[in-house]
Task: inverse folding
């Protein structure tokens, strides 16, 4: 039947072709449970580099707060597979994106470059700049098998690159019955509508590929859509929280009723509010319950990947990275969506599991960026990091080197205006303690300044307060200095 159907599955449905198995979607996958406890016993770091270069699996969700995990203390949502990766590896508690939007974040993760440097500044179907390498391309040149599975959100859906395995779609597609293309050995087939839940279909495609014979190290990107709006989970999770579960109201939820005191008009006039956003979500409970249920579906797909790697004996030889492309407002200031430089929008989970290198249950509070993922992946694989890359390898932190020199500030910029939800262009600088945000196209320019140590919820805008005039001036100078340095100004 040819290479596209070389892997077949037998079970209660009989012998199925690969395409038929994919069409089962959530119906064929929903009953799998893969949670496993962290292994007991003392941890001993292995030698580095390992005799065989590690496999790499990068799993990414779409719009997840780092607090949407039970391992982070969330009392409602249960995420046993993310918990496992954290408990058997390292959990970064201060990870951020440099542009809180789908396509720009993915462009940054692929290249290790800021948005203006890589060419993907917004969601308007941008291409990665000509001649700019992406990390899977560099890995392939050094002998890795490479796979891309899911949502890239960039022009061409990454089909112009070589992939040993590809299963994905162009731009945004529905959660159910999406047009998906699949391919092997550098050739991608045409888009076909496949019945079922697209994230489960994409994951099953990767699982099937991983079940095949892999005699080279591999790098697989599993970039899923959940829990992106409209926040649809797989069918078996549709009523997950319709059991009387109560959703606590964020402390800032009613700030809109007060006129957003202290906030600039650029912030107050955004359209990303619950009940105003075009997704049609009208209540806090509807938003959070749907978002959590879809995140649980994302967690289940992580478990499917862990299971196939464990069954094949490859799990401990594989670096598992779990993250998201940006955070998401879940009712803070009555907001949903992202884009603004406030903490719910820019913070993302980052979990890394690799027993030869990482002590189980490690926590790290350094400021990591999505900019750092490409150089980290290349470093772990022993592949030279291009001098143009703007991020820093996280490997010293993964090794537990507390004395490793690290950044103490970083630059943020969002560009898509006018656009969906009408969030004005904003940029800023974040240090370990302070944050200054500039809405640079307002007339006059508007600002927000926060002391995150004393005001982690960003409720008290200190800009304009004479007591903080020198701090504002210093941070603004540094913002412009950093902006020019990274090529964003």
Result:
């Amino acid at each position: 039947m040819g290479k596209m159907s070389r892997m077949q599955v037998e079970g209660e449905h009989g012998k199925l072709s690969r395409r038929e198995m994919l069409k089962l979607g959530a119906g064929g996958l929903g009953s799998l449970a893969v949670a496993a406890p962290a292994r007991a016993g003392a941890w001993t770091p292995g030698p580095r580099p390992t005799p065989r270069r590690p496999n790499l699996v990068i799993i990414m969700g779409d719009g997840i707060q780092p607090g949407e995990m039970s391992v982070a203390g969330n009392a409602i949502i249960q995420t046993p597979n993310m918990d496992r990766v954290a408990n058997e590896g390292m959990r970064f508690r201060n990870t951020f994106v440099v542009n809180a939007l789908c396509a720009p974040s993915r462009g940054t993760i692929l290249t290790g470059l800021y948005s203006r440097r890589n060419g993907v500044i917004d969601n308007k179907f941008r291409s990665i700049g000509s001649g700019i390498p992406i990390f899977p391309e560099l890995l392939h040149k050094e002998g890795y098998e490479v796979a891309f599975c899911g949502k890239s959100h960039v022009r061409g859906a990454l089909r112009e690159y070589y992939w040993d395995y590809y299963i994905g779609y162009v731009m945004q597609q529905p959660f159910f019955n999406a047009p998906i293309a699949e391919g092997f050995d550098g050739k991608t087939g045409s888009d076909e509508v496949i019945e079922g839940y697209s994230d489960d279909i994409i994951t099953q495609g990767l699982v099937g590929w991983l079940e095949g014979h892999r005699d080279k190290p591999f790098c697989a990107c599993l970039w899923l859509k959940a829990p992106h709006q409209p926040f649809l989970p797989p069918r078996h999770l549709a009523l997950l929280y319709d059991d009387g579960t109560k959703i606590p109201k964020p402390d800032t939820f009613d700030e809109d009723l007060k006129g957003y005191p202290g906030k600039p008009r650029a912030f107050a006039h955004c359209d990303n509010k619950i009940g105003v956003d075009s997704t049609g979500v009208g209540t806090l409970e509807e938003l959070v319950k749907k978002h959590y249920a879809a995140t649980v579906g994302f967690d289940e797909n992580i478990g499917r990947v862990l299971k196939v790697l464990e069954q094949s004996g490859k799990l401990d030889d594989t670096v598992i990275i779990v993250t998201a492309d940006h955070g998401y407002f879940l009712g803070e200031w009555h907001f949903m969506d992202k884009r603004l430089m406030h903490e719910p929008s820019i913070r993302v989970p980052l979990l890394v599991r690799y027993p030869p290198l990482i002590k189980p249950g490690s926590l790290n509070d350094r400021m990591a960026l999505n900019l750092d993922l490409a150089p980290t992946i290349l470093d772990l694989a022993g592949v030279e990091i291009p001098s143009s890359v703007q991020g820093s390898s996280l490997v010293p932190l993964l090794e537990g080197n507390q004395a490793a020199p690290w950044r103490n500030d970083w630059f943020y910029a969002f560009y898509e205006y006018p656009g969906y939800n009408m969030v004005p262009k904003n940029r800023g600088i974040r240090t370990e303690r302070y944050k200054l945000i500039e809405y640079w196209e307002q007339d006059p320019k508007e600002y927000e300044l926060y002391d995150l140590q004393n005001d982690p919820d960003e409720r008290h805008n200190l800009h304009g307060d004479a007591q903080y005039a020198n701090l504002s001036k210093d941070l603004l100078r540094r913002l412009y200095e950093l902006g020019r340095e990274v090529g964003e100004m």
